[in-house]
Amino acid sequence: MKKLEQLYEGKAKKVFKTDVEDYLIVSYKDDATAFNGLKKGTISGKGEINNLMSNQLFQYLEKNGISTHFVETIDERDTVVKSVDIVPLEVIVRNVAAGSFSKRLGVEEGLEFEQPTVEFSYKNDDLGDPLINDSFAIALKLASQDEIDKIKEMALKINDLLKAYFIEKNIKLIDFKLEFGRFHGDIILADEISPDTCRLWDKDTNQKLDKDRFRRDMGDVEGAYSEVRNRLGF
Ligand code: C5P
């Protein structure tokens, strides 16, 4: 497959056209941003880790009945994916209070929930990705009720599968963000699953092994990403 012209450059990835209809190539960068682009930096080796980790997890999810955009890994940074029409929602699943949940609701980080929460943000940089609910998403014509029901069902199933996967590696899945897309009439999982988009805490010490180390200037960001890579064995 040929990598043709660049279609788009996002905060963490570039997207290229290919010579095959319906297929794109995503190329992961080491660039890191936080707080809607206000904080910028580089996490050396992040592109490789996020690419290979996403691909490993997407293959695991596929084996367990979740349709994803993953097609094939080209190399450490580049992957062939299906070209989807992205549903402009950030779908966040939480098992433990942290981040914006703790801040907004005055809850200490680390409180474990009896059942996971699912929330939506409207993917819109100009508005700072505001929190919305199902009826707002429908009013804004971001998705249909059927699509929202499907997305929630898939998000909760993905949570069960990922929690089980990470705990085997001595990692607690605190929360994560997913994006979905439309592909030939179906809703499939798109984007990435990586330490950029998940909160991952060591099971025994609660040490943070994710992008919060960059967001909060905690140091040893690269070390945390490498630790996840070692534990997942890729
Ligand atoms: O900041 P907040 O607590 O809402 O983040 C919840 C989860 O979603 C975290 O795992 C975070 O890494 C992820 N997230 C993301 N991209 C965003 C916002 C949140 O990957 N734009």
UniProtKB/TrEMBL annotation:
Annotated InterPro entries: SAICAR_synt/ADE2_N, SAICAR_synt_PurC, SAICAR_synth, SAICAR_synthetase, SAICAR_synthetase_CS
Domain of life: Bacteria
One Pfam family from the record: SAICAR_synt
Catalytic activity: 5-amino-1-(5-phospho-D-ribosyl)imidazole-4-carboxylate + L-aspartate + ATP = (2S)-2-[5-amino-1-(5-phospho-beta-D-ribosyl)imidazole-4-carboxamido]succinate + ADP + phosphate + 2 H(+)
EC identifiers of the protein: 6.3.2.6
UniProt keyword annotation of ATP-binding present: yes
MF terms in GO: ATP binding; phosphoribosylaminoimidazolesuccinocarboxamide synthase activity
Statement: the UniProt record of this protein carries the keyword ATP-binding: yes
SUPFAM superfamilies according to UniProt: SAICAR synthase-like
GO biological process: 'de novo' IMP biosynthetic process; cobalamin biosynthetic process
UniProt KW keywords: ATP-binding, Ligase, Nucleotide-binding, Purine biosynthesis
Residue ranges of domain SAICAR synthetase/ADE2 N-terminal in the record: 6-231
Pathways per UniProt: Purine metabolism; IMP biosynthesis via de novo pathway; 5-amino-1-(5-phospho-D-ribosyl)imidazole-4-carboxamide from 5-amino-1-(5-phospho-D-ribosyl)imidazole-4-carboxylate: step 1/2
Family named by the database record: Belongs to the SAICAR synthetase family.
PANTHER family: MULTIFUNCTIONAL PROTEIN ADE2, SI:DKEY-6E2.2
The protein's name in its UniProt record: Phosphoribosylaminoimidazole-succinocarboxamide synthase
Organism: Peptostreptococcus russellii
